[in-house]
Each structure stands twice: as structure tokens, then as C-alpha cells.
Amino acid sequence: MAMALVNLLLLAPGWLLKDVQAHTWLALEAPLVVGVFTLLPRRHWCIVLAWGTAVLLVCLAALTFADTTLRESLARPLNLYLDVHLLSSVGLLLTGALGSVIAGLVIVGAVVGAALFAWSLARLLVLVGLESQRATPGGTHATLLGCFGLLVGLYAATDTGPGLLPRTALPALTLIEDQSEYFRHMLNERKVFAAELANVPTSHADMPGLLHRLEGRDVVLGFIESYGMSALNDPDYGSVVRPRLDELHRRMQDAGLSLATGTMVAPTQGGQSWFSHGSLLSGAWLDNQLRYDLLLSSGRETLIDDFQRAGYRTVALMPAITMAWPEGDRLGYDEIFTYNNIEYAGPTLNWVTMPDQFTWSFLQHTIRQPELDDPRPLFAEIGLISSHAPWTPILPVLDDWDAIDDGSVFAPWENAGERPVDLWLDTDRVREHFALSVDYALAAMIGYAERYLDDKTLLIVLGDHQPAPMITGDNASRAVPVHVISGHSGLVRPFVEWGFKTGAFPDPNQMPHRMDTFRDWFVETFSHPAQGVRLDASPSRY
Q1: CA angle, 119 as apex, 117 and 124 as ends, to 5°?
Q2: Cα-Cα-Cα-Cα dihedral sign, residues 518, 519, 522, 524
Q3: What structural domains does the chain harbor?
């Protein structure tokens, strides 16, 4: 019973979350741990050791569960050095998906269940030790079994052991070894990142004619949640998304707007969008939290500073942020709009605080046309979150943009769609809803561009990252689409020269640029002097 319980603790996370691990039947730590307790003398400290071992194993099981979850959701393993702060994010995600009451019950149930597992395992380990000390055949058998388990565990711990023992694994020891390696790697990360930053311009203050080639036009940079190349290339998602992109091309042509599309590589997948935002704005590759924190504490300038120095008003529109955001203050936007100061009277939609169509409308009617006239051109960075999990409900794009106002028009969808807890029981339906949510996000963007863009605005819309591996599969790239739209073809042409393709689809042969290359390229391209760049409008439009 003791071995069965240890085995269940260490292997269940893999069985539950990743089917490919179902072939593993035995965690070799189980006979190893039980074997040790059969050989220990009967002492009071053995009871303390049994309780300590039980608590340790339950903690290792929880970390194994977290590791498997991160591999499924963020396409990377757990890194304790960096990921402790994600506990609060998990709580917020559970609350958004399940509601505060059910989320609280889930958390309490997990804690109580862990405590019961620890208590049961501790009792069993104590009994194992007592049984092995009795002068009975059962005690002898227990001791022999313990010796056998100890030998098997030690043998399996060698480099060649696991290959000779099929359907076995060492999940706890592997986890400890991996976390030790990650810790050693993180200790060197500061030096590595500092060396990389030495090759990134600290400031563009000395750039001649900083961003003058924009000629004072507004620039809007929009990140669409979970919009990756899998939405185009996967046949199941492409059957929904690609027709919408055909519509994007057609409607932009009809509106007299130029359009080009390329790809960029994001530093993250499945979540932690701020790594992508930070990489693109700073010109530094931010693929973990330590790098992001180091960049913020370094005082280095970003694209936001470049626009401010060029005389722009800089605004962040982040409807997904519901708590204090000191990072935004550090980045130095002139104005920051988050959930708490956006005047939205509509319903929240599970995790999504407000639909994308309202965000676009708020950008146009509140930020781009403020009550107090500001003569400065606008640089706005916006986060578009309707395509964030749990991908329910799926809203229609309203034809009457003038009716959106404060968002109360969305009240009919407050309890629409399936509950996330029901939808997520069926993986195929989850994937179907993912495609529909991206389709909605693109449709809202198309409606905004068609209605409000002109030759005085450059709109750059890109995915923040690919969705989780459960959506993309395990071997998907981290490339995301980037759409560039303007009524001034001269603003779009430099992107085509950079490798983008005219129209709504990227060139499949283009080598994607990493997001950290964007800042320097953009500033150099749209500043004086810039080699080979002409921003005069041409008769033909992209």
C-alpha cells in the first residue's frame, strides 16, 4: 500500500495531464523509499522521518503537477527560481474561469487532499518500519522486499538503469536534478543578460531626426492574445481564420488602405505576454521573469521613450490588468488605462474583462479624441484579450459601432455561452472555441481599421504569442503573424522591404524576425537619415 501510494503521487500528474506519460507504470522512488523504511531500526525518530518523508513526497508530487502543467500551458518546464510568483496568477485564472466560490473550493480541496495524502503515507511508512522489525515471516518478507526495492532504486539511479527497466521512471529525482540545473543556470543569467544588453542601444537620443519620417502620424501597436501562426497553418484553425484574413485583404482594399503581413518570433508561448511586449519595446530578448525584472530595474530606455522624445503622447490601454501595475509606471507612459479606470459598463466575460470591440471603440472615442485637445501625435500600445482562454462566450462584432458607447450594449452576453468548467471537459470543443475567438478578435480589428484608419495613422497588429501546446501541439514554432495597415502606402512599404508580404498572409519563405529586433529597425527606418526608405505615397496601394 505504501509503494502504491508513493507511485500514485509521483506518476498521477503525468497520467492526468499528458497522455504520452501513461506508458510509465512505476516510479522507482516508490520501492526505494519503502525499502529504506524496512531497513531502519525501530526508533522514535523514525516516526518523525516518516512524516518528513511523506510531506516531502507530497510537495514533490505538487511540483511534478506544476511542471507538467507548465509544459502543457507555457511549453516550458517549471523553474522554481522564477515561477513562485505565478501562484497568484493561477488563483486569478481559476477565479476568472470558475468563479470565486468554486475556485476557493478547488484550492481548499487541493490543500485538504494533500494533507490527507501526507497523513496516510506517513502512517503507512511507520507501519512498514514496524512490520519489518517483527520476527515473523511477514517481517522477513517485508525486509527482503525492502532490500530488493533499495537495490532496484539504486540500480535505476545509474545512467544505464532506466533503459534496462521499461515502463519505469524516476520523476522525483529527475525533478530535483532539473531544478538544481535551472538554479545554477539562473545564477549565471545576470551576467549573460548584462552581456547581451551591452549590444543593445541604451538610448536613441542621438538619432538624427528621431522618427521624423512618420511626419507626426499616429502609431497604434496592438497585441492580439494567443494569435500565433498555428491559427493559420493548422487545418482545423485555418478553416476558420484564413477566410477572415481573406476578408481583411478585401475590406482593406475597398477602404483604400494599404496592408502587409509578416511574422515575428515571440519569446514565450501560452502566456506571460509581458515578455513579448517587453522584448518588442526594449530591443532585448526577455524570455524569463528574471530578464524582465532586470530590464525594468536597469533604467534603460524603450520604444516608449523614443516616441516621447520625438514629441509623441504615449498611452497604454491594457484592459486585462486588474491590479496595480508598477511596471507600466516604470516604462513611462504618459497615460495608462487599465480595467480600474476604463469607463466600461458592460459585463465581464469570464476571464475577459471587456470585449475587443469595446477596447477598439474606447481607443477611438476616448484616447484618440480626448476632451482636452492635445496637439501631439499618439503612440498607443493596446492589449486585445477576447482571444484569451477560456474562449467562451464568443461574441458577434456589432455592426453599429456608434452604439457601443460605455459597453452596456454587451449586457445580453453576460451569461451567454457555455460555462468554462463544462467546455473544458471536451478538448476538441476547446480547440474549436479557440479558433472562433481568434476569428472574433480579427473581425473586431477589421471593423476598426475599415471605419477609423486613414493616411494619418499606422496600425501594427500582431499576436503576443502562440497558444498553449494543447492547442498547437508540442512542436509548434513560436512565430506570430504581424499585420501592418495604413491609409498612407509609404508607411507600409518599409515593412515590405523588411520581408513582409503585401496582403493578409505572410510569405511562407520569410525568415521570421525576433521581436527584440523590432525597436532598432523601426527607429532607424523611420528616422533621418534612413537608407533606401521612401515614405511618399504611391498611386498603387498594398
Answers
A1: 95
A2: negative
A3: 2-185 (no CATH), 200-525 (3.40.720.10)
